[in-house]
Known about the structure:
Blueprint: E1 5-7, E2 12-13, H1 14-24, H2 29-36, H3 46-57
Antiparallel strand pairs: 1-2
Amino acid sequence: MEDIEICHCNGIMKSEIVKAIKEKGLKTVEEVQDETEAGTVCGGCIPDIEDILSEING
Length: 58
C-alpha cells in the first residue's frame, strides 16, 4: 500500500489512520477524528477517511 498524506492540515498519513482504525476498532469518521485529529481542521479529507473506513471495515 502506498502511504499518502490524507489530512494535509494536520499532516496525517494514511498509515496512521489505518493503524488507528485497526487497533482501536474505529467505525466512524468522528472516532477517527478523536483518535488521530485527521479531518478536524478544514474537513476536506472526510470523504477520504470514509473511504478508508469502508476499505477496512467493509
